[in-house]
Design goal:
alpha+beta; 2 domains; 5-stranded antiparallel beta sheet; 5 helices; 21% helix
């Protein structure tokens, strides 16, 4: 169990933080939410394996053709843990032992450990991105925020708070707020999004996922991330940020 313990602690902390952020107990770890009751599959357009309740939180990775890979952290029975399998008809329960859906057919689970006599596992499955609440998706929420307001720190404060972006001085002379990328990615880029402010103005966004921002230009960074930047950003500053990330 020792090998799993640090990961288990991180997963359970993530569950707690998301419950506090939502103000209700229907989440697993992650930042996106399920919009309405949703079916998840074992592969893209494959067999249905999960029926997930509306509002449940999950971690996701974007895939091609509007599909996503979702991850749920679950409290499971000793039998499920020892067999590393969920059985058809089993209730899916989060780390607060609340029902978030049901399993539709036998399916393997990744065992992560035992904490205080509770068995914890992770399951990953596929669904289409239309089954996610748009405002819970970091990139779609930012697009809507910038469309309806000006790119200033004051106007984006609620976005930063709602999505729990963390402050950091990642780039000297600028204020930065970031969210880490999901570690499910095979080539983990570190950051999912970094907002870079000069004083009150948003001058650039470093991001690993697609953003549609009509008022920003875009270029690849030295590490293969995307950098969307204001046309007012000086060329030397732009090049410096591109090399930094």
């Amino acid at each position: 169990m020792k090998a799993y313990f640090p990961l288990l602690i991180c997963l359970l902390i993530a569950c707690t933080e998301n419950r506090e952020a939502a103000g209700e107990g229907n989440g697993t770890s992650g930042v996106e939410q399920v919009a309405g009751e949703a079916i998840f599959y074992d592969t893209i357009a494959g067999n249905s394996i999960l029926n997930i309740r509306e509002g449940v939180y999950l971690s996701t990775v974007d895939l091609e053709n509007d599909w996503i890979l979702g991850e749920f952290v679950l409290t499971i029975s000793k039998e499920n843990y020892e067999s590393a399998m969920l059985r058809e008809g089993d209730s899916l329960r989060n780390s607060f032992d609340e029902s978030i859906g049901i399993i539709l057919r036998d399916f393997p689970i990744w065992k992560t450990g035992v904490l205080e006599d509770e068995y914890v596992g992770v399951i990953r499955a596929f669904t289409q991105d239309e089954n996610l609440l748009s405002l819970s998706i970091l990139e779609r929420s930012l697009e809507m925020s910038l469309e309806s307001g000006s790119p200033t720190l004051d106007d984006l404060e609620s976005f930063i708070v709602d999505h729990r972006l963390k402050f950091s001085e990642l780039y000297p002379g600028y204020q930065s707020y970031f969210q880490a990328e999901n570690e499910m990615l095979k080539e983990f880029p570190g950051y999912r999004m970094i907002l870079i402010f000069s004083a009150q103005d948003l001058v650039g966004i470093v991001h690993s996922r697609k953003l549609n921002l009509s008022k920003f230009e875009s270029q690849k960074t030295s590490k293969g991330l995307n950098f969307s930047f204001s046309a007012d950003l000086a060329k030397d500053q732009k090049e410096s940020i591109i090399q930094a990330f």
